[in-house]
Amino acid sequence: MQWKSILVGLVVHRLTFSCLLWLAFGLGPSWGFNFPLNLNKLQLFNEDDGTSSSDNSWSQRIHGHGDAQSRTSCAKLGEENSPKKSSYLSLFEGDRDEYDRRYSSFPDTLKLKMKGMAKDMFFFGYDNYMKYAFPEDELNPIDCQGRGPDVLNPSNININDVLGNYSLTLIDTLDTLLVLGNVSEFHRAVKLVIDTVSFDKDSTVQVFEANIRILGSLISAHILLTDPKHPFGDVGLDDYDNELLHLAHDLAVRLLPAFENTSTGIPHPRVNLKSGVSPDSINETCTSGAGSLLVEFGILSRLIGDSTFEWVARRAVRALWNLRSNETGLLGNVVNIQTGQWVGMQSGLGAGMDSFYEYLLKSYILFGEKEDYLMFQASYESIQNHLRMGRESCNEGEGDPPLYVNVNMFNGQIMNTWIDSLQAFFPGLLVLNGDVEEAICMHAFYYAIWKRFGALPERYNWQLQAPDVLFYPLRPELVESTYLLYQATKNPFYLHVGMDILESLEKNAKVRCGYATLHHVVDKSKEGRMESFFLSETCKYLYLLFDDDNPLHKSENKYIFTTEGHVVPIDARFREKQWNDLFPCEEGVVTDQESSNGSFSINNSNCDRVSEERRYSLPLKSVYMRQIDHMVGLF
C-alpha cells in the first residue's frame, strides 16, 4: 500500500497541530506516542539489505515524516560512514520470558473455575432480569428496574431502535440457556415467550436490531428444539407445535414494509410493527444495517419454503454491492436508499460496516451460494489493499503491527485516526476465512487496549493513545474473537485473555442487580443499562471458551453463530431451495474474474500456518507483544 499518497493530507494536519501544541505547551511532533525517543528521527531498516522500510510504520508516518524519496536519498549520502543501524524492534525485545511465563500454560483447575465464573455471571444477570424487569425489554441493573421503549421521546433512537416492548432480553438469551446446560429453564423460557410475546405492537424499531436479536433467536431456538441431531440432548417439548417459528414468521412479515417504496431495494432503517414505515421516515441507512439480514431471512425462507424473505435480503445486498467504488472496490457506511448516493463515505471494519462483511462469508457457509463468497473474497482483497497498514506479516519482519484504518471509499485516503470496539469482531471472521496468523496480530492489538483500560472504549484513537468515545456497553466482539482463536489454535494464551476479560467485568461492571454499561472506561463510572447482547453473546462466548466438553464442541455436526451469537447448524437442508434461482441473469453480480486469481476457490491453506509445535508457545512473538503493549501506552 502506498502510504505517501494516502497520508499526505493527514500528515500536514498533524504537523500543523503539533506546531500549535509546541507553541502552547512546548510539545513537539512526537507528543502523540510517548516513545523513549523521537520517532521523527527513527528509521526502520530491512535486516536483509539495510534499506529503509518506513512504509511498514503507520505510527511514524502519522508523526510527520517527509517525502520517502528524500529520506532514502539522505540515508544513502551518509551510508558509507554511518554505523550499523539497529532494528527498530530491538527497542521492544526486553525480557521475553515475561510473556512466556504469564501465558504459556493454563491449569485445568483454573479453567474449571473460570467456566463457573462465566456461568455465574450469566445467571446473575439473567435471574435479576427475570426478577426485576420481565416482561419489559431490558434490565436497569443499578436501579433494579425494567425498561421498555421511550414512548415519551420517540426520537430517542438509542433506546427505541432496540426496545420494542417484546421481552427482548428473554428472547435474545434463549439458546444461551441451552449452551449453559439449563434445559429446564430453557423450556420455561420458551413457554413464556409462546404465552406472552406478541409483535402486534405500536413500536417503531430498527429492522437490523429486530432481525439479529429477535428473529435470529426465535429461529435458533426453534431449530434447537426440533433438530433431530439434538446436540444438547433431547431438549424437545412434547406439546411444541412450531410456535417459535410462527412468531419468527409473523415478525418477519411485519419487517417487510421496510423493503417497500425504496428506489434501490435497500430497506428503510426503521419500521413500525403495526403500521409499517412512517411517511416521515428518513431515507438514509448504514451498510451493515441494510446488508446484514441475509442469514436470518435466508434461514426463515428455507424453513418455511417461502422465497420472499431471502429475496428481499439478497436484493439489498446486491444493491449495496453495485454501489461500491469502481476505483477501490470499497463501500461507504451510510447510503441514501432512494438515490443510491453515499452520504457517509467512510469505509472501515467497525460500526456501520462490520456485519455486512461477516454475513457475506457466513451466508456462503450456510447456503453454499457461490455469489456470496465471491463478494466476500473481492471485499477482502479491497480491505487488504486499502485499509490495512503495518508490516506485511503478523509474526515476522520489521515495522508496526497490522492495523485496519478508516478510509475514504473512493480514494483510500485515511479519514480519521480512531478505531472502534465493534471492529474487534474481525479477527474472528479472519479465523473463519482461514487467515489465522492475521487474526492473531489484530486480536493482540485489541487485547492490549483492554489490558490498559479493563474494557474496550467505544472508539480508541491510535494516534493519541487515548479513547475518543469513552463508554463500554459490555460488547462481545473481543470475547467472540478470543473464543474463535482458541478453537483454532488451542493456545492457552487465549484462556488468559478470557480470564482477564471475565475478571475485569466482575471488578468494573458488576452492580447490585446485574452488570452495567461503563460510562467511562477510565474512571469506571456506570450507566443503568445491561444490553441484551451481554447475556446473548458476551457471557455465552466466555462460557464456551472455558468449556471444552460443551455439546457444541463434541457434536459431530457443525454450527455457526449469527452476528448476535445465536447458534444455527450448518445443515444440508439450508443448501436446498424450493424455488428457482432468485436473480437469474441479473447484471452487476460479482464475477469470478473480480478475484485476483480469476477463479473461484476457497483457500483454507492458511489454517495450516499455525503449526502444532506453536500450540504452547505464544501465538505472537514476545517482541511483537511488547511492541503492541507499548503502542497503546501500557509502558
Automatic annotation (TrEMBL):
The cofactor required is: Ca(2+)
Q: Which UniProt keywords apply?
A: Calcium, Endoplasmic reticulum, Glycoprotein, Glycosidase, Hydrolase, Membrane, Metal-binding, Signal-anchor, Transmembrane, Transmembrane helix, Unfolded protein response
Positions binding Ca(2+) in this chain are: T563
* Annotated InterPro entries: 6hp_glycosidase-like_sf, EDEM1/2/3, Glyco_hydro_47, Seven-hairpin_glycosidases
Q: Which class of enzymes does this protein belong to? A: hydrolase
- Renumbered residue ranges of the record's region Disordered: 55-86
Q: Name one Pfam family in it.
A: Glyco_hydro_47
Supply the EC number(s). Answer: 3.2.1.-
Q: Where is this protein found?
A: Endoplasmic reticulum membrane
* One of the GO BP terms on file: carbohydrate metabolic process
Gene Ontology cellular-component annotations: endoplasmic reticulum membrane; endoplasmic reticulum quality control compartment
Q: Name one GO molecular function term.
A: calcium ion binding
* Membrane topology, record value: Single-pass type II membrane protein
Provide the active-site residues from the annotation: E209 (proton donor), D354, E458 (proton donor), E477
Assigned protein family: Belongs to the glycosyl hydrolase 47 family.
This molecule's function is given as: Extracts misfolded glycoproteins, but not glycoproteins undergoing productive folding, from the calnexin cycle. It is directly involved in endoplasmic reticulum-associated degradation (ERAD) and targets misfolded glycoproteins for degradation in an N-glycan-independent manner, probably by forming a complex with SEL1L. It has low mannosidase activity, catalyzing mannose trimming from Man8GlcNAc2 to Man7GlcNAc2.
Q: What is this protein called?
A: alpha-1,2-Mannosidase
Q: State the organism named in the record.
A: Salmo salar (Atlantic salmon)
